[in-house]
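Note to self: keep these together.
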Amino acid sequence: MVRRRALDARHRACFPNEAEIARRLSLYDRERKMTDVTQTFSQLLLTYGPGAMLDLPEHAVVVGGLQDWRFGPSWRPIEEERLVALLRQQLGGKLSSTFQGLRQPPVFDEDRRDGNAPGVEVRLFPTWFVVDDADGDNADGKAPTTEKRRRIVEFADLTVNSLGKLSYRGDSQKSQVNPIRFVGACARGHLQDIDWRRLAHRNGDHSCRKPMFWVERGVSSDPSDISVRCTCGASVTLADLYKPKFLGGCTCQSPWLTPRRIAEETCVESLHLLPRSATNTYFAQTVNLISLIKSDDRVRQTISEHRSTIDGIRVLPNFLQVLRTIPQTKEAFKDFSDAEIMGALEAGDAVEAGHVDNPKIPEFDLLASGAPVLGRPEAGSHLYAETLPRDSLGLTAPWDAFLQNVVKVHRLREVICLYGFTRLDPPPTAGECELEEIQLNVDCADLARSVEWLPAVEQFGEGIFLHISSSFVNDWRERPETRDISDQLRHREDQDARRFGRPPKHLGVAYWALHSLSHALMAELALECGYPLSSLKERVYSSGVAQPDRFGILIYTSAAGGQGTLGGLSERAHDINALLARAASRLSLCSNDPVCAEQARGNEDYPLQGAACHACLLVPETSCEARNGRLDRSLLVQTVLGQGSPLLGAQVFPLRGAHGEGDFQGTTPSRVLHIAPHAGA
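Structure:
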């Protein structure tokens, strides 16, 4: 919830429980006559986190860093030992030495209306404004009628009324103002106001303090037709500001942090002109994992679910007595003896002291274990799944050889943690790495000067896990034609890395194929399970070269509370043979063929996208773990061009002619459109 504060132009944002999906705008405060704006946890972490620019009904602000997050006395930790250990290992010096772990964002409290209520501070940004009246003060009185001129002023020139509204009083009357549309930013996430007066007078009198105007000529909105002009005659056009290095070097400003700049901090990046509403103003850096269970050890699982509470009281001499007394743990540990609890704690400490693996590895190993039942069916369990008997699935070729096991995931818990962000260019995601290693982006912008904790959310859902036969995949990878394709893909991954100036990530041809199949299966499931495609997510497990074989696909959905565990998705596990067959069959022919199929060898603009387009394989980016990259349906089935090395075999899903007779030979299939007469004819 974002609430404006009237006098100091600072604001507080409180975020409600995720169950409140609707965003409430302009909720009138009964006592202080202020406006509240509500946002969900997901919006806060993924779109409007610390450092993100946000337009409120009457102000433009930047969301404050973690130092401005106010928690009430009942703040809630997010328990996930594996993720905390991964963050400590990967982020290193970016975290405080006293890093405490993960926290749920502050929850809106309907009963609290005071200045210390739970919430998140937001700060006024930018501090340059455009006055609403068209010609402003028009000091020279000679403005051409084809130009629209508006006065630009700084925050110090404005007045703030009792309701927090900003206005500018010129020579004639009081006028409303709007924040200027452009700011300066660098690739490392720094953000600052543009010094419009300095730029306009870059070749003239830097001490000039005459009125300046935002001038728009014509109606084209071309950058060359928009300028900032001083009454003295100095000016600068928007087209000039887009020139490389025109804005100068970055001065390391971080207006969401306290202090906003550290004297010894340096940045070698150049400033770029950035529209506040542009899509590249904020790329949240998150890492997510699926919570696991120790199916053979209930006491260790219970300890994992209450880890923060245990760590806080473990130093007490009467630790076990307190553990059995406080409300948070009293019921959870009542069935375990003191010896069982202490033994599980000691065993857990030994495991935590070791190296932290990629979170995907233990996820795969558990889901692919073949155990008939994983986890517990209780409401509070983090995971409950069943490995379906193969003879109950009715698998036909090639799926009987392709699938080793199918797991029906009734309930799973996903934890999503925000650890930084970037601007201008999106960095690689945690999912864009080989299965045996994971690298978080340590060059991302900071969420606080001293990171004592990180924000996270937990969501519950359901899904389907496919354990894919390693022998099937390895036989396909050893074909000569597949090896040629693998070399091409490696070259394209190098090409993409050079575009962004970062080391290449080579995930292998198996990842490309399984990722493509995952997208095709998601599109098919969306037609059957009751969840829209944008609500489905994927997790692709694929080993690299010289790594233990792990191949699998997890399609799942997750939402707040129990909204993601209604059963519509997991029940489709029984129909997996038909779903995969239909998904693969749809890939044989795309409505954009032959253009789509011709992209199987890639192109310079999109090297990570092969024979894939919005008509066949691309899905909403919220559903894809790799931003719709590394996709190519020609790796799965034979396309109209008949090239490649299909994983599923060219003979399995032949393209059919107009009436379903014979193989499609590359000519355009014809269809006869029958026009029925009008019913009354």
